[in-house]
Design brief:
Blueprint: H1 37-48, E1 52-56, E2 62-65, H2 67-77, H3 90-93, H4 98-109, E3 114-123, E4 126-139, E5 142-152, H5 154-176, H6 183-197, E6 202-207, E7 220-222, H7 231-241, H8 246-249, E8 254-257, H9 260-264, H10 274-277, E9 286-294, E10 297-306, H11 314-378, H12 386-413, H13 417-438, E11 441-445, H14 455-476, E12 480-488, E13 493-500, H15 517-526, E14 530-535, E15 541-548
Parallel strand pairs: 11-12
Antiparallel strand pairs: 1-2, 1-5, 3-4, 4-5, 6-7, 6-10, 8-9, 9-10, 12-13, 13-15, 14-15
Helix pairs in contact: 5-6, 6-11, 11-12, 12-13, 13-14, 14-15
Length: about 550
Amino acid sequence: MTAADDTLGQGRPSPLRSTSMPTEPVIEPYPPSADPIERQIVDIFFDRVPFGLAVFDLDGRLERCNRTWTGFYELYFGAGPEYTAPGRSIYDMIPGNEAGLDELFGAVRAGNVVRQAANKIEIPGVATYWDVVFAPLYEDGEIVGVLDVVTDATDRVLSHERLEARIRAFTAVSAAMTVDQPLTSTLSTIREQLMRTTPATACSLITWASGLTPDDDSFTMVADPSFGDGYAAAMRRMHLEDPRDPAERNPQPFELLRDFRMAAFQDPRFEPVHRFWASPQPEWDDLVVLTLVSGSVSFGELHVHLPASARVTVDDRDYLLAMADHAALAVQNAALFAEQARAAGDAERQRLARELHDSVSQALFSMTMHARTAERRLEPLGPDADLARAEVARLQELTRGALAEMRALIFELRPGALAEEGLGAALTKQAAAIAAREQVVIDVQAPVQRLPLPADAEEHLYRIALEAMHNAVKHARPRRIDVSIEHDDATGEVRLAVVDDGIGFDTSVEHLGHLGLGTMRERASGLGGSATVTSERGAGTRVEVAVPLSRGTVAG
């Protein structure tokens, strides 16, 4: 993405803007005057000062005003000079504010001067704020008119409100950046706060572990819900399929892309998200892209969608950059915490696996050997020892099952076991343990050559297969379970099937949630695939999962 136009802040920070004075020098001719100097001073003061002056009669009808006062109406109403022509009522010029005007004029008619900072005046579509002075004008000791002196405080008040809102946003984000919260929760808080404190119509965050670009295994996205279902997956596809060199496509820390929406429809790189961006909601034309970076390492991008020609000041840029820094820190902290937790968990699991292998597993193996010895010693005794032989056979069966269970448990506990041995070997060990324990035949068929699956894909498929086997022995009373893993060359998918010959069930009647299908589908969906279950009463059950050969995870 490249910047099309950057009109950031119009060259001036918020405090230097003015609605009553030009921000650049304006030179106008001023003709000679024959009036006394005192009168000239009064005239210059009335017409050229950077605050509005207006004179009203006691009924609120305008008698005279200066150019600055007229300019305020031009700014907020788009009205011409005729809008502030003498004779017009202030009640007609700012309708809907009658109660406040009655209070001001009533106080002045009683002989008081009214001074108020940030007096709120509602006009169609916007609230404005004014520092005002209302004073009585006397003639022959009688109040005959009202002088209105105003300066526009709208920018000051809104800037203060914006600052307070952004302080609250930073506080909320800081509170969300705790290690006990998932990363997506923290990123969602950042997205929500940006929607509250900027003119954004949509906002999304894309993160990965580290480096210039996302990879298969670590892609995570908190997508703006207004783009609808599937947007996160489409955005992920767009990033992973971008043909450009990583160094070339890595954006600057801050890019303001004017009219980006229309330009994107002409760029084939954005084809995966065209249908989402073509929707009339949310309304946006411009895009701000911020890199989530810490040091020289990139952790993702923050996308802020804006209405056409939305004003983006220097203050806005700094605020967005600060929020992007918070997001980068959250990603970095989550990665470090996960790494530390994984290391601590791996060490504990390694210790347990070692102790189980050295004690319980060896004891079970010894029991198996003793049972075999007892069986051989009973052979010469003939029929008189049939009962004892049956008990010894049962003991052998139990110890073999327990040993298979222990080997499967040690496999589960040993860090990196699945990554070292692969999906097929892992399921074979687990199937042996389940078969011995449940007295059911389980056959596992897997490719001889290990499939090049990412680590997270192997883990999810492993858990899905275990869940399906456990469901079968728990609910279906099968005699046989067949587990198969194969690669479909035509579709490029890996297919996992778990089929049992148990009692089955009616999928149109029974709720599948208690069978764990919801979790299976979530795991498969996280890999960009699908999980299906087919079953009939008396005809067994088939659970099948299909995932692309190379997939990471998408969240949001």
